[in-house]
Amino acid sequence: MTETQPVESSVGTPRVLPRNLLYSIFARIGGHGLDTDSFEALRASYHGKFLGKAVAYDNRQDEIPAQFIQSLRWHPVRLISFVGRPHYYGAKKKYLDWIASRHLETGRYDFFHSWSGDCLESLRTAKRKNIPSLIEIPTWHRGSQRTEDKGQKTQDGRGWKSRLLLEPGRFLEEYDLATLVVVLSEKAAESFRAANFPDEKLFYLPRGVDVERFKPRLEAEGTRRPPVFRAVFSGALIERKGIHHLLEAWHRLNLSDAELWLLGSVHEEAKPYLKKFWCDNIRVLGFKRDLENYLNQGSVYVFPSRLEGSAKTIYEAAASGLPMITTREAGDVVRDGVEGIIVQPGDVDAIAAAIEHLYRHPEIVASMGMAARQRVVENFTWDLYRTRLLGAYERAIQLSTT
Fold it and tell me: If residue 53 lies in a helix (H) or strand (E), which one and from where to where?
């Protein structure tokens, strides 16, 4: 399952695809992060000539005509934005769900594609009307995560605000209702199997990356990497992504002619660790929209996360030709000893040892970096992602007829 291959129909066998697809997502179409994923998914159905409608919170691209996208940018939930983030986000997700479910009620659509947490009422409607459905899981099975990751807790009694929150059981019901559940990594698939989820309802769909935007510095500019050893981390500076373990490992090493670049928003929980493990060779650079211009100045990429679906930053770092020190929990891009070094989450000794190993062996940095670039070019482009997505649609339709 971890070795990815494009999903193709048998030679001479016509593909069985939707005729009129409805897509919904609690994000924008086009932009950064999940907004990129939504755009690339819609390109598959638009160019396949079966996109009916997409419902999202904004549209920031111009390749797919606006007539295919219902933007909820100016939504009535704004009137209760004062209630606080968990309640407000819950209300927005439920509003998106309500809009999508009304579309499905019309009978115009023959396939529904959405995301976990965004679509309970829509899936209930799809199930009742025998419409095949697919949901994507951004991390792991909700039942496998720690209490604080399971969803918002209802702490407001039975007041109106409590009804805005996403109940933990919502996610589990979505899994049952969906025809097909898409996971981003083998680790995510294992979390579903551990919950006795039927394997035939799982579909492995790793993400893609723009290999023209993210590329090695030598390839991008015709220049050589700087002589300083530079470790790079990108993403929100939060404990879940292991930033505190990286800072402690870096502090222990005290390397000369080395820098640690931290690219991403600094959350409050990271500030005590930045203070405790601060070194003069750490640079906190903040969130960068032109991330490619920073990754291709690095020597290695370090991302010791304890929980991801399949971290997009790993794809971007690999495409930039960086060897990686990461965890199996971050996804399947890196093979231990080939494109980088796999460590256990929270193992500060292993993180420090891996950084020092690559610091002392530039020839391994070079070979792993080339292998990382080759791996994404051959396995994780957006073209391959869209081909695999069509295979997921085929699979869901097959399951719905058995």
Answer: strand 51-56
pTM: 0.88
Strands 111-115 and 282-284 turn out to be unpaired
Q: Could you say which DSSP state residue 332 is in? A: S
pLDDT by residue (tens digit) across 35-55? 999 999 999 999 999 999 999
3-class DSSP state of 327: strand
Residue 9 CA to residue 174 CA, distance in Å, equals 28
| Amino acid sitting at position 330 | A
Per-residue model confidence as pLDDT tens digits over 167-218: 888 999 999 999 999 999 999 999 999 999 999 999 999 999 999 999 998 6
The DSSP result for 180-233, as a single string, is: EEEESSHHHHHHHHHTT--GGGEEE----B-TTTS--HHHHHS-PPPSSEEEEE
Where do you find CATH 3.40.50.2000 in the chain?
A: 21-208+382-400, 217-379
d(CA 323, CA 263): 17
